[in-house]
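For the sake of transparency, this paper describes our internal protein records without simplification. Because each token names a local backbone shape, the row as a whole describes the fold. One such record is reproduced below, unchanged from the form in which we store it.
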Amino acid sequence: MGTTQLDTVPEPKYWHLKTVLSEALDSDFAVGEILPNERELAARFGVARATLRQALEQLELEGRLQRRRGVGTTVAPPRVGVDVGASQHGWPGAAGDSWQPVDCVSAAAPAAVARMLDGVTGDEVHTVRRIRVTHGQPVAAELLYVPVASVPDLAAIEAPSGAARARGVLRELQRLVMDGQDRAVELGSARADDARELDRLPGAPVLVVTTRYFAEGRTAAVSVATYRADTCRLTFGDSGDLEISHHTQERQAS
């Protein structure tokens, strides 16, 4: 990579630097290769480190770079297409579901989830944690919130905790007749627990897919799935229509 004069470029410096870096990634680096440190790159291109960080963050957001714990910034492999189309899945845990149950706890639902469940803050829900693996790599983590009322027979199942409890909740949920589902997709930042499971740094860009499942005239469950933005390209299938509005809570895919 050679030094590029940026002072006369009319567009923001970090944006032009991002373009230059992107071209260098194609020609000078291999997938998985570690980039020079920020000090070297900033000196090479004659920019402030703050400008360099903006360019690197944009490239990470676009899936060109990965920040890896204890390694540094590396060139990312091509994104993997991950299907999130409603036509591909019924209830979570149904046959063909690619998610792996990890744990389940019963506690009060977060306020935002309680609103989606048409309940009140403090109502107890079963929270199932699952992980999705593609080509041997963890690509998404999910929290599935299931009201106690949606799985009334769960108490009869001898599975007090862990993955067995999670599978029990999923089995009971599938007894309901689904009325439909809706889905919203937005850009977010990885929380500490999701980052740990997905081998990312806290605050790394992620895609958050929120799904509401309807049965018996009410919201029977809510899924909040966090996908790695650096490796995932979400697809919706032939019938996965995507609706976008300017109001976050109204952005839905069905």
Summary: The first strand starts at residue 65 and ends at 68. Residues 239-254 have pLDDT under 50 and may be disordered. The radius of gyration is 21 Å.
